[in-house]
Each structure stands twice: as structure tokens, then as C-alpha cells.
Amino acid sequence: MGQRWIFGLLIALCFSTSVQAQEVPRGAWVRFVSQDLKALSLYFEGMAILEEGQKGKPFKLFDKAKARIEKRVNSGQINSGDLSVLFNIARITGDNQEILRLGQLRLYFGDGFMDEELISVCAQTAYSLGDLERAIVFLKAGDRFLPPNMERTAAICNLYANLGEADSALANMARLFKYPEFEIDASIRYCLLLNDFGLDNEAYIAMELLFQRFPEALPVQMARAKFLQVGQREVEAQAAFEAIYRNLDFSEEAIAEDFSVMLDELTGANLPKDHAAWQTLLLLSSKACEVRPESALLARVRGDVLIFHGDKREAMEVYEHSLTLPNGVLWEVYENISVTRHELGDMEGYLATAFAANEAFPDHERAPLLLGTALDMNGQPQQAITIFQLGLKRSQSQHQGNSPLAPEYYFRLGTAFFHAGDLENMSASLDRLLLFFPDHAQAKNNYAYYLANFGVRLDEALTMVDAALKEQPENPNYWDTKAVVFMNQGKWGKASGAMVECLKFGGAQNATSCLHAAQIFYHLDRKEDMETFLTKAFENGASEEEVVIIRRQLLQSGQLETAL
Q: Among 85-99, 232-246, 462-476, which is the least confidently predicted range?
């Protein structure tokens, strides 16, 4: 299972080592005296000023209060209220070592000097300093002097687990069973903790016993299903999940969320597509749709799983089917269909879906972006510009001139103006974007690429693409842009160097980059490499006619831009 299971706020503390001795005030005798009222007054005056937002003066008052109290403490005069004031000042100033020192001092005197907040703050502070054992000391002190607390017990269990002390962790886990309201949760975590310590068979037996005891409890059902899945008991896991899907008390929203979490985990782990975990998720999402055939939400999630697995055509079928289901007309589905059609090269279908989405959701903020982009990609930049401008105006109006979509609108407008051959408005749109978002790497890259294609402001273009590469040094598209800038400057050696980086980071899978590489190699008199990358361009989606024309142009004149 590999992961530590976290219970509540304190259980998230993953603490380290080294317990220091308790620090006792100087002086032969400790006298318990009344609180220093002057120090208390200074403290409250500082707090009042701090709440007003002033910075300097309150800390001077805190220093005065602290000096008075420390003088008393060092002479052996102790008061719980005085120590609380010092403790709070340390928290305000962020002095972690002082928090722990004062916490230990209050522990030394025990009952009357301690409270739940002290235990929580000191344990969390120990965590922040990486001191597990000291955190355990504070938590156990809470168990001695304060009423029993479920969260403290869970935290101690987790701390021992992180220290690898299985016996102590499991012993504290057993204590959780004393809290009736925590019984199911504690039992689940007990099973998982057994697994975490490599006691797989014991964990499996414990989970099955728990399921026999609480067969109708949904948390137990879900935990068991996931437990079986991770344990590679695939047949049992699938049966367990199917039972959950048939349980009408388990909402489709909860099932969809669970699939989304599993999908995020798989994509984050970057597992190969033939991995058993992928096959399980594909099967489970299919079973969920079979069990709940009227659920448009589960159909959409099934489509998402297929998309990320790379089954785009099957995903399209699932998405389109979801639109026919009750409550199935979802913006996300239209958006996913349009993007997928574009990726599959179905440009007419891409545009048709964008129009359908706009018809179904005429007031959706992203509708003009979707339609405008589809128009632009289908060779209709002027129509796209009109749609973008109307959409931006409407979005700005809805948000009182501060539309969150404004950056994307200016970005898309810049691209459309470029495709329309309008250098002035292209520059104005991207300048507007970079004025408000100067770190927008993709905008800088595209701006540089467009300028290079216009053959103007090449030094400025180079500065832009270098800035983009500083943000994303392994982006092959940005290296391709840098190569194109050098090509337009006639610096073929430098263009080759940039293209090498582009190809190293994945540019060899991009048709356009391969065409640029072919041109560079032609100018470097590397005809064989030129032919290789023309072939790669074709394999990556460039049309045969396009490749033939470019080859002819290269061999005749070396002018790739003319051919393009």
C-alpha cells in the first residue's frame, strides 16, 4: 500500500527525533505567585494594536512584557498565566524553539499549566522542526493530564508508524477502538496499517472480518474494494466495486469522484497503458456504466478515462452517447468532443461541435473561445476575430471590466490576427496580454514565432523565446521557435543547435518541427538528414503532398517558407 494513512489534523504530523531535558527556572526554590498584571497589561495593549494592523509598536510592548515575566521566572517565581503570555508571544513572533522550551516548562509543572491548545501547538511545532519523538512526548503528556482524546491517540499511532515502530503503532491503534464513534474508521485504518507494515495476509483477514461485521457500511465497502484492488485481487475487487455501484445509497457523484481520484493517481504515476491498474480502471468504469446506464455523469467520466488512456475514438462514442442521456447535455462533454475531434484531425466535426456547443450553451463564458478557436483552426480567422471580440466584450461586461478569461481571449486574438496576416493587431493583442501577465511563457513563445514568420523584430523575438525557455527549458516547441528565429536571421549553425534541443525533448514527434529540421539540414548540406526528417514529418501527420512540395522547394531554392 505504501502510504501512511492520516487521521485528523494532528495525525498529519510526521515528526523526527531527540527529546531535550525539561528546563527548570533558576533559583533554589520555585514559588507559585500571582500573575504580573503590568506584563499582562502590556501584552493586551500590544494585541489590540496588532489587530489594528500596526507592526512595530506591538512588538516593543511584547518585548517589555516578556522581559518582566522572564525576570520573574528566572528568579523562581512561576505563574501559569505568565507562561501562557510568553507562549503566545512566541507563537506570534514565530519563535519555534521558544514555543518548545515554554511547552516543556509547562509540561514540567503539569496540571494547571497545560491545555489542549498547548499540546496541539507544540506537537505541530515539533513536526515543523522534524522532531518526531518530542512530538510524541507532548501528545503523551496530553494523555496523562487531559481527558482522553481520539485525535491525540491517532496522531501517536501515526507517529510510531512513521518511525517504523510497528508494535507501538499497532498498540495505539488498538486504543482507538475505545471510541465507539470511531470504530469503523479505526478498523479500516488498522487494516491498512497492518498492510503498511508488510503484514499483507493479516491485513486481508482483518479487512474481511470487518466487512462481515459491517456489510452495509459504505465506507467499509469502498475501503475493502480499494484494498483488494491494490492487493491485486482483481476478481474480488471488481465484484466489490460492482456491488457498490448497484448500491443506490452510493451516489453517482461519489462514484464519479472516486474515478477521478483514481485517474489522477494513474496519470500522475505515469504508468504504461498496458499496466494492470489501467486495465482495472477501464473495466470498473465500464461496469459502472453498465450498472447505471442512465447516468450521463458516469458516462462522461468513462470518456475521460478512455481519453487519458489514449482510446480517443471510443471516448468519442461514449461522450456522444452521454449527450442522449437524461441531464446529459453538459458543457464539459461538448468541449471534450470538440478537442478530441481536433486531435483526430476531424476539422469539420470539430467546427460542427463548436457550433452545437454554442447553440446548447449560448451564455457559457467559454463558448466564444471554443467556437472562435475552431473557426481559426478551420481557416476562418476573420470570423474567429469577430467571435473573440464579442466574447471578450461580453465577459468584461459580466465581470465589471476584470474578466478572468481576458488573458485567453487576448492570446487567441493574437493567434487569429497572425493567421489573418495582421501584424499590427497581432502585436497589440499579445502586448496587452503580456502587460498584465508578463510571465506568460506560451504567449512569449508564440509572439516570437509569429514575428519570425513575419520576418520582423527578430532580436526582440529571440529575447522573448529565451524568456519562455527560462520558464520551461525542456519545452520542445519553444526550442523549435528559437530555431525558426535563427533560421530567419540566416544563422544556420545556431538554428541547428536549437533544433538539437527541440528534438531531444520530443520535437521529433511533431510534424512542423521535423519540417524545420529538414530545412536546417538542407542548408547545412546534410541531405540525408533532410530526407530523414521529411519522412518523419509525413509519419507525424504532414500530408504527402505537403512533404513533396517542400522537398522540391528545398532542393530548388532552399525557401521553406515559400513552400509552406
A: 232-246
Residue 562, pLDDT > 60, answer: no
The rounded distance, in Å, linking the Cα atoms of 447 and 458 is 11
* Single-letter residue type at 466: D
Nearest to 455 by CA among 423, 478, 431, 480: 423
d(CA 535, CA 508): 11
Residue that has been written with the C-alpha cell 508571544 in this structure? 89
* DSSP bridge pairs for 77: 31
Burial of 461 per CB tally in 10 Å (0-12, 13-18, 19+): buried
Confidence of residue 30 (pLDDT cuts 50, 70, 90): low
Note the CATH number of domain 1-163. 1.25.40.10
511, 537 Cβ separation under 8 angstroms = yes
C-alpha pair distances (Å), 83 with each of 25, 119, 141, 233, 303: 12, 14, 17, 56, 60
The residue among 107 and 309 whose pLDDT is bigger is 309
Range with the largest mean pLDDT of 86-95, 116-125, 516-525: 516-525
Question: Could you tell me if 297 and 251 are in contact, meaning their C-beta atoms sit under 8 angstroms apart?
Answer: no
Q: Kindly state the cell numbers that stand for 298.
A: 458516469
Assign 77 to helix, strand or coil.
Answer: strand
Q: Do domains 1-163 and 439-563 have the same CATH topology?
A: yes
- Residue pair 483/520 in contact (Cβ under 8 Å)? The answer is yes
In whole numbers, what is the pLDDT of the chain averaged over residues? 81
Taking alpha carbons only, the member of 116, 137, 161 closest to residue 12 is: 161
Query: Between 11 and 206, where is the model more confident?
Result: 206
- The C-alpha cell that represents 536 in the structure block: 518523419
Class of 439-563 per CATH? mainly alpha
Q: Where are the domains of the chain?
A: 1-163, 439-563
Rounded mean pLDDT, 326-352:
90
